[in-house]
Design a protein that fits this description.
single chain; mainly alpha; 5 strands
Length: about 400
């Protein structure tokens, strides 16, 4: 963590945090003033909903996280001013996986990224994106800074490596997500809620217009694309369920891939992940608190799914393709080929070979098994299927319910 001189007895206000970031970066233009709204929402929630229940170390970590991402924004805006080639980049037909967390989206994203024609962001490029790639490959020192920052965030929650084993070997070279990596810089991210579980910030995510954050998302892709090789982006972010309408408006030609999984597996895994992330407060969870995590995980996903289905109705079915986690596991190459066929693309033999090679070198149990049970979080099949009735009827996935494998 960086050193900063500020009293952390209470959460610093937005003005203080921006001033600290500006001093560290030696820059003052944070870009679109509309992005102050999500920052205010997050900081207010930290102060009013979370701060009292966090340890002093967690306070410093939270403030360091904010200052770093604000500093990154300052550098991105400065680069955009200095290099007009960035804003000239065209983002065409991005593939965007928009399904809920723990629905197989990370595996599918990895398989899509193996296509030589596709570009996919990596953690280092979100943590240390400046200067742009067109000016030269990242230095060893830059990659080491990104690696150190990424790993230091998880000092309080080492169990995260069981649920995200790819980070053990790949570190900051692992694929990044739209929500928990890119959108963190716009302080519009479900991950930020998962860290400290501030209720007012959760309501902000569910109820607000996030067009400004999606503009930032596109600006960031332009930054990464200048100097990159490839013709289209392969992206993923479960957070997109919260702003599917704004996403489609920003990328009207996007190829939207909605992943699904048996809710018994998916919600149990999601609650387990969220219980681990709550450790960033510095305090362990009791048995009853774990049950509360499970209830809130279900409620958050129900609200996100309902919002996403409503947005999908407005966007139109032509933009979407539904993919079953169970199909990806049973027939990964054929499942990716079906995605390409759906959008009028041809999967190359080289891409198929790369998928087979990657799967051979990365069996599911390579770094252990993420053990979780929906019963650990008090999940009731009948109630969940009732609460998700519209989703079950529409897509055929519920708690203990899933359609047959694709032919």
């Amino acid at each position: 963590m960086e050193k900063f001189d500020v009293n952390l007895g209470t959460c610093p206000d937005v003005e203080t945090l921006m001033a600290l970031a500006s001093t560290q970066a030696g820059l003052s233009d944070f870009g679109d003033p509309a992005l102050r709204v999500p920052l205010e929402a997050y900081v207010t929630s930290l102060r009013n909903d979370c701060w009292e229940g966090m340890t002093p170390f967690a306070h410093r970590q939270a403030v360091d996280f904010i200052i770093h991402h604000l500093g990154t924004r300052l550098k991105l805006v400065n680069d955009r001013k200095n290099y007009p080639e960035i804003s000239a980049q065209k983002i065409r037909r991005p593939m965007i996986i928009v399904g809920p967390p723990r629905s197989g989206s990370t595996l599918l994203h990895t398989l899509l990224s193996l296509d030589p024609e596709n570009m996919a962001p990596e953690h280092w490029s979100c943590l240390e994106p400046s200067p742009p790639l067109a000016l030269g490959a990242p230095s060893k020192e830059r990659l080491e800074r990104a690696d150190k920052r990424m790993m230091s965030l998880f000092d309080l929650i080492p169990d995260i490596f069981v649920t995200h084993p790819y980070m053990i070997e790949e570190g900051s070279g692992a694929l990044a997500e739209c929500g928990s990596d890119i959108m963190n810089m716009a302080f519009t991210s479900q991950q930020l809620w998962c860290f400290y579980r501030g209720e007012s910030y959760r309501q902000y995510l569910l109820g607000s217009d996030h067009s400004a954050a999606l503009r930032f998302h596109q600006n960031f892709l332009q930054h990464l694309q200048w100097g990159a090789k490839g013709t289209r982006w392969a992206l993923k972010g479960s957070d997109h369920m919260l702003w599917m309408g704004e996403l489609a408006a920003q990328y009207p030609d996007a190829l939207l891939i909605w992943t699904h999984r048996d809710l018994a597996q998916q919600l149990g895994s999601l609650a387990s992940i969220q219980a681990i992330l709550t450790g960033l407060t510095g305090n362990p969870l009791s048995g009853e608190a774990r049950q509360a995590v499970g209830r809130l995980a279900i409620e958050q996903q129900r609200a996100a799914v309902e919002k996403a289905m409503s947005a999908r109705d407005a966007i139109g079915e032509d933009a979407f393709f539904d993919v079953s986690f169970h199909d990806v596991m049973a027939a990964p190459v054929r499942t990716v080929e079906r995605i390409y066929e759906r959008y009028g693309l041809k999967m190359s033999a080289e891409h198929a070979d790369k998928i087979r090679e990657w799967l051979a070198n990365n069996p599911p149990t390579k770094h252990g098994v993420h053990k979780h049970s929906p019963e650990d979080f008090g999940m009731d099949a009948k109630k969940i299927n009732h609460d998700f009735a519209e989703y079950v009827d529409r897509f055929g996935f519920g708690f203990g319910i899933r359609p047959p494998l694709a032919a």
